[in-house]
Amino acid sequence: MRLILTLALIALSACSSTAFDRKLDGLFGIERDTDAAPEMIVAAAPPPPASATTVEEFDTTSPAERAAATATETDTNAPLGTTIAALGSPTEPGIWLKTPLVATATAGRVTYQGKTINIALRPSGGAAGSGSQISLAAMRLLGVPLTALPELTVFADG
Q: Please, which of 35, 56, 113, 132 could form a disulfide with 99 given CB 3.0 to 4.6 Å?
C-alpha cells in the first residue's frame, strides 16, 4: 500500500494538466452514453477526489467504461508498433496511452500478454523509440502490476 501511495505521489509531482489534455476529453467524449461505441467512452471518467489514496479511489472509471474497454473485436490492422509503458499520472482519469507512436489523438487498442483493451491513444510528443505512459485504469484492466514496465503492442482503429 505504501508503495502505491509513493508511486502516486511521485507521479503527481511530475505531471501537470494541459489545455491539450482537456481538448482530448472532448474528443473522446465526456458524456457517459453507455450505448456509444467503446472508443468514445474510454476517456470519460471523472477526476479522482483530492483525498484519493488507494488504487480504487484513483481509478474512477465506471463498470460500463471498463466493460467497453474490454469488448474488443479482432481485425487485421497492422500494429503501429510496440512500446514500453510506465504508469502515467493517476490523477488523469480514463483509459489512455500517451505514446510517440501516434501524432494525433485517436482511438485504438493495446495488447499485453494475450489481453486486449480499447484505449484512447494520445501523442506523447516524445521521440520515436521513447517510452509511453499508460493510465492506472488501463494497467488494471490489462492486469499489469503498477510498478511494472510492460511491453505493449499498439493498434490504431480505423
A: 132
Distances (CA, A) of 8 to 3, 67, 73: 9, 25, 33
64 and 118 Cβ atoms separated by less than 8 Å: no
DSSP assignment of 62-122: -HHHHHHHH------PPP-EEEEEEE--TTS-SSEEEETT-SS-EEEEEEETTEEEEEEEE
Q: Which three cell numbers stand for residue 72?
A: 474488443
Taking only the tens place, the pLDDT of each residue in 44-58 is 678 888 888 888 888
First to last CA, the chain: 40
For residues 74-93, average pLDDT = 88
116 bridge partner residues: 111
Cell numbers 474497454: residue: 69
**CA neighbor of 111 nearest in space, from 145, 70, 68, 50:** 70
